[in-house]
Amino acid sequence: MTEATAALLRELASSHRLEEKQYAQLVEGFDQEAAALAARLAVAARRPHYGDKVFIRGLIEIGNVCRNDCLYCGIRRSNQHCSRYRLTEEQILACCREGWALGFRTFVLQGGEGLPAEQACALVRAIKGEFPGCAVTLSLGEYPTEDYRAMREAGADRYLLRHETADREHYQKLHPPELSFDNRMRCLKDLKDLGFQTGCGFMVGSPYQTPKTLGKDLKFVEEFQPAMCGIGPFIPHRDTPFREFPAGSVELTLYLLSLLRLIKPDLLLPATTALGTLQEDGRERGMLSGANVVMPNLSPPDAAEKYTLYDGKLFQGAESARHLEDLRGRMVAIGCQVVVDRGDPAP
Fold it and tell me: What cofactor is needed (predicted)?
């Protein structure tokens, strides 16, 4: 690690902001020593807000039917090998019942794009009606402003919409022409304006990504000030145009988790499934790098098996909510404590 990198890390830890060019320099300066310093600073930054708490969210993959054709995604519209499904409202409520009994107080409904807004609203109302006091997070993609408003009025608390990249040119290389960078940014602004706890995020190591584009991502997070941010390594899927590209780096992802914690010390920051897919102790290492959220999968096993955004996805063992005790044990082993509550952002 150079002295310049160490100085930038300490500056970020104290001021929570840098210039875009400096963020790119931090990415270029990544090595084991820099990552170790960033992780120490990140855990120290997290502690005043959350202590050693790890929040659990119950993830329900409600369907893999998608109208979009993103070049990196295994459930893209043109993938003829994808076995499509959509869970019924009753199946989704059954997943929530199982999670509620296990102590989950946040449910994350994630799915391919194209679910009619009225169906999303009905789901939110049904979950809120049966499980008072729970938080509902939606991750269902892009909608017009009025649809987001209806979801908020139905009771949805949070919305996760990964921006994927804050660089317009890079965005177009990852998506088909009908998807626009400007619309993605409009959606994120709408969600925040409507009072959602809003999450953004990006893949690490996606095709054509550079330190410069990652610098833009970090600056975007600093300026947007999301409640949560989801990042994970890019993992290629065999039935996509990006099948031949290498997977993103676990080590770089962990370093970026630390940088995000330094940018916003009260961020809700998941250690994602993709991290656990590429490395067995990936999520524990995520916590030690500054993360504080894990999202065990409550989906029925046959659905989870079909929701393959990338190859090799974990959907059994500690990834499944049914193995929550194992997850608790793994977190205790690294000095963290899994807590049962909504896990709202620190006040």
Answer: [4Fe-4S] cluster
Domain that holds residue 190: 52-339
Considering its fold, how many domains does the chain have in total? 1
Q: Do 235 and 277 touch, CB atoms closer than 8 A?
A: yes
In a domain, 294, yes or no: yes
Whether 319 is covered by a domain: the verdict is yes
- pLDDT single digits (tens) 100-118: 998 999 999 999 999 999 9
The reported pLDDT for the residue numbered 327 is: 86
In the chain, % of residues over pLDDT 90: 85
Question: Binding site membership for S-adenosyl-L-methionine: which residues?
Answer: 164, 184
Please report, in range form, the residues annotated as the binding site for [4Fe-4S] cluster: 66, 70, 73
Q: Is the pLDDT of residue 170 over 90?
A: yes
In a domain, 173, yes or no: yes
Binding residues: 66, 70, 73, 139, 164, 184
What is the number of alpha carbons within 13 Å of residue 164 lying toward its C-beta? Answer: 24
Instruction: Output the domain CATH number for residue 258.
Output: 3.20.20.70
Any alpha helices (H) in 225-297, and if so which ranges? 250-263, 273-278, 282-288
Q: For the chain, give the percent of residues with pLDDT over 70.
A: 95
- What tens digit of pLDDT does each residue of 206-244 get? 999 999 999 999 999 999 999 999 999 999 999 999 999
Helix axes 211-224, 20-28, angle to 10 degrees: 130
Q: Is 32 exposed, middle or buried (0-12, 13-18, 19+ CB in 10 A)?
A: exposed
Residue ranges of the binding site for (3R)-3-methyl-D-ornithine: 139
Give dist(CA 261, CA 255) in Å, integer.
10
